[in-house]
Write a structure and sequence with these properties.
The chain has 355 residues and is α/β, with parallel strands linked by helices. Helix content is 51%, strand content 19%. The protein has nine helices and 15 strands. The longest helix has 63 residues. It is rod-shaped.
């Protein structure tokens, strides 16, 4: 501290107050004495004091009455309670009401030396407290800066992925090869699944997690829009009310897996010449530590062990995403159509948002 600490002594005994001030000044402090609560509050309002030595008996009121008024100040200084009472309940009450320490006022006057020690200790503790507050604020400010930076990164990543999708769209439009067009459209959908996470992250309050229900619903809406644009009457229906929040890497895996399963159903469940039907996707919690993603249709059906249709890339991607999620991939039997279920653990660090 570059200047002497200023101490306010509150004691209704003018003689004892002068002795206290003299002793504190001899110890290197600046000290001022007042005799009642109103004068103490006026002095605290007029200038800054680094600590208050507060006597218990103040004539018309007690130090216990004045203590809450002092502690209610915006920048309340630490208070050392001074009492001549040998009733331990007084000291306990003072500490409970915000005093940082107490000194017993003995007849011989030794308490004045103890008061100096108590004030020095209180000032050290106050400095440590303020240093901790400054450090905590620096940490919070650093966290805010990091979150802003990460939000900007997510924004730029989403924009860059949007450019990739546009290039794939242009490539598909420039080709007359049906296989190339299909491959470009599938790549667009996969990139869109990743871009969707980053779009949600840079608008999210907590950039560590993504609301899975909202994210998957957005993916389905994009797929339905794509079907509508290409003239398909088929509808993809999504249901979820888990309120599940998951880290970015896990959400991307879930989104890509759902995208592949829905894409496979869209391509192969209802071949030309069969009635158009719906595709249903759902996410549900099986318990506090397990979730299940299901994609099903009422089409021609496919069961595990049948020959893979197409290039098989989609199946490989689903298997890879299942591995990253530590998920179990299953094909529940159905009388009609195909059902694929992906059960994966929800770890304790995963949270739940409002339903």
């Amino acid at each position: 501290m570059t200047e002497p600490a200023r101490i306010l002594c509150v004691d209704d005994d003018a003689g004892l107050g002068r002795l206290m001030v003299r002793n504190l000044r001899a110890a290197g402090f600046e000290a001022e004495h007042v005799t009642d609560g109103d004068s103490a509050m006026a002095a605290l309002a007029a200038q800054r004091f680094h600590a208050v030595a507060l006597d218990h008996n103040l004539g018309g009121e007690s130090g216990l009455d004045l203590l809450p008024r002092i502690k209610a100040l915006p920048e309340a200084p630490p208070v050392i309670f001074v009492t001549g009472s040998d009733d331990a309940r007084v000291a306990v009450a003072a500490l409970k009401n915000g005093a940082i320490d107490y000194v017993w006022k003995d007849v011989q006057g030794h308490y004045r030396e103890l008061l100096v020690t108590a004030i020095n200790t209180a000032l050290e503790q106050e400095e440590l407290r303020r240093a901790k507050e400054r450090a905590d604020e620096e940490v919070r400010a650093g966290k805010r800066r990091a979150e802003l930076l990460l939000a900007e990164v997510n924004h730029r990543v989403a924009n860059s992925l949007g450019i990739v999708m546009s290039l794939a769209r242009l490539q598909a439009a420039a080709s007359s090869n049906a296989a190339v067009i299909d491959a470009m459209e599938e790549m667009q959908a996969r990139v869109s699944a990743i871009a969707g996470v980053h779009r949600r992250l840079y608008t999210s309050v907590d950039i560590r997690y993504v609301d899975v229900d909202t994210y998957l619903q957005g993916l389905i809406e994009e797929m339905n829009g794509s079907l509508h644009d290409t003239g398909h009457s088929r509808q993809i229906i999504f249901t979820a009310s888990t309120g599940l929040l998951m880290p970015t890497d896990k959400v991307i895996s879930v989104g890509i897996a759902m995208n592949e399963l829905v894409t496979n159903a869209r391509k192969y469940a209802y071949p030309p010449g069969t009635p158009a039907g719906e595709i249903r996707a759902s996410l549900e919690l099986l318990g506090p530590a397990q979730a299940r993603l299901t994609v099903e249709d009422d089409g021609i059906g496919w069961k595990k062990g049948d020959a893979v249709k197409g290039s098989g890339v989609g199946s490989q991607i689903v298997a890879a995403m299942a591995g990253s999620l530590r998920a179990e991939l299953s094909y529940p039997p159905r009388e009609k159509g195909t059902c694929v279920a992906l059960e994966f653990p929800v770890e304790p660090k995963d949270g739940q948002g409002p339903n």
